[in-house]
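pasting input
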Amino acid sequence: MTEFSDSEILEKFRDEKSKHYAFNLLVDKYRQRVYWHIRRILIDHEDANDVVQDVFLKVWFALDNFREESKLFTWLYRIATNESISFLNKKRKRFFIPLVNVEYQLAQSLEQDVLFTGDKIQKLLQQAILKLPTQQRIIFNMKYFDGLKYEEISEVLGLSVGGLKASYHHAVKKIEKFMENH
Amino acid sequence: MKRKSKIESKGFSLENSESAKMENPFSVPSGYFQELGNQVKSNIQNLPTLDSANVKNPFAVPEGYFASLTEAIRDRIKSASTPSGFKTLASEIFRRPQIRLSLATLAILVVLLIKFTQKQELSIPENITCEELGNSIYIHELDEYFLVDELGNLPAGSTNGNTEQDVYIQWFMDNNYDINYKDIENHL
């Protein structure tokens, strides 16, 4: 199947006749990347499924206003990150979980998750990542798992490249220390 | 003078650290410390080095999930696009639990208020004349047997009719006499 470029998809989306077709192309192109980004933040598949649908719903209503000042995929990542963070905040409020404990709860849910297929070391790595503060965790995931460049992460999160490098370095040190001790 | 602590009074001194070291109450399995070193080394060797070559995705999704995801998103968009602006606004308002709770409380209060005021309207006025009762359209809806039962239990003289006549009527009714109104008037 031919993969359309972002600008081709956007052009088709702006034409009322091919709007739905263009949106399907966009979903097909980015659904997996967006889903995995959300899943690594929220851990639970059902939560990730809810949020990924919300993200594309927002994209549908906001795409007309997308001015191509940033890349389409960094814009999608930004929406996905914001939606995931607000989902975690809602979860904290709904279940009266203290701010620091939501990641602890996610680590607990990993134990019973049938859709976690990693081995013992992979589980330990995820538990180490879940010990990081939310923003540092997101930075680590984007760099380590998604292989994004610092410039791209900077565009998504609106943070300086220098700050991101320092944050990633500290995250790696913390994770290594956690894994050595467990 | 320094006061003796509870521990010291039982013959034990925390300052006597040498004797405490000698009497370690814990023990480890035999050969534990030799094994520990090897275990730590092996754990470190098995650690995934955090470079991109070792990246593995440990999460999975249900079978056919991504194929159905596009469909699910399309359905969400369809249902979100269908309602009118008012419906969207209404659903957005009712989505908030505080507003739902406030509206439910308000609805209960309104129902209670209506019930209370209706009860006031339905209460029977204490003083009602026979004329008012006779003119009332509701008198025709009253059950005849109900009236007989209710008025039959009243003491003689408590009704506004001819008391002597009532006594005769009651006597005739009690003794199963078939008699009409004119007979009674003639008799009186």
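fyi The interface with chain A takes residues 43-44, 46-48, 50, 52, 55-62, 65-66, 69-70, 72-74, 76-77, 80 of chain B (CB under 8 Å).
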